[in-house]
Specification:
Elements: H1 3-12, H2 22-31, H3 34-77, E1 95-96, H4 102-111, H5 113-126, E2 135-137, E3 145-147, H6 155-159, E4 163-166, E5 172-175, H7 178-183, H8 185-193, H9 204-214, H10 216-220, E6 223-224, H11 225-245
Antiparallel strand pairs: 1-6, 2-3, 4-5
Helix pairs in contact: 1-11, 3-9, 3-11, 4-5, 4-11, 5-11
Length: 246
């Protein structure tokens, strides 16, 4: 299902029209005065905007918890990413939720609406494929690179490498990459042998559940990372358009 379809049906149809069938809605819109329509849109969009801002604030609080939990685990374990490494970020199979990129989309639509529109065009051209659009690889340097929006990165970007999940036997295992294991072999071995005892390792499923509790629809579905970013930008751009139009 197209992400924009989910937004349109769940968040952007004004409540007075929400239960009306599509053909009936078109007839109503033809009869109503343009000013009346814009007034309804303005009132309803303001309600939706307030609701979305509450969700964005909740996501930012969750990110604060994740960042502190990961910082503590890094301090305890001695594990860290290699300086300037972008190997994980350069992969094309990363999946994310729409909700975790709403703070980024909200920030861009407020501070740099022109940049948000340009990014949407780039994402449409990519058709939701490829590495994250915010990853900037260093030319001729192998896996080196950086994130252009590091402070606004998604939840998966914050947790991977320094969190755990349960395997098929119900045992916790660390989610990390090959380069971290190679860079810190002794630290990794110590963590792997003492899961759940000596280390306060963030548990990814717990934070995924926390995200879904903020919004089950936007925080529950996984999409290729560029599709998630595109849909978040489309959502915030749509509400910005309503505000300007009204």
């Amino acid at each position: 299902m197209n992400c924009s379809y989910i937004f349109f049906n769940a968040y952007t149809i004004p409540k007075p029209f929400a239960s009306v069938k599509q053909n009936q809605l078109l007839n109503i819109l033809e009869i109503l005065d343009e000013h009346v329509i814009l007034t309804i849109l303005k009132i309803e969009d303001e309600k939706v905007r307030q609701m979305i801002q509450k969700k964005i604030a909740a996501v930012r609080r969750l990110f604060w918890k994740i960042d502190h939990a990961c910082a503590l685990f890094k301090l305890q374990s001695g594990l860290n990413c290699p300086v300037g490494c972008g190997e994980c970020c350069s992969k094309s199979d990363i999946e994310a939720t729409i909700l975790e990129f709403l703070p980024l989309a909200d920030d861009l639509s407020r501070r740099h609406p022109g940049m948000a529109e340009a990014l949407l065009k780039q994402l449409e051209q990519r058709d939701g494929t490829g590495p994250c659009i915010f990853y900037q690889a260093e030319v001729g340097s192998g896996s080196a690179g950086s994130c252009l929006e590091y402070s606004q990165r998604g939840m998966i970007c914050r947790l991977f490498g320094f969190s755990a999940r349960s395997n098929k036997y119900g045992q916790k295992e660390i989610l990390t990459c090959r380069r971290i294991k190679t860079l810190h072999p002794d630290c990794y071995a110590t963590v792997a042998e003492n899961m759940g005892s000596r280390f306060s390792i963030p548990y990814m499923p717990y934070y995924q559940e926390e995200l879904q509790n903020i919004d089950f629809v936007l925080g529950g579905g996984l999409y290729p990372i560029n599709q998630a970013i595109q849909s978040a930008l489309e959502m915030m751009s749509l509400h910005r358009f309503f505000r300007l139009a009204s």
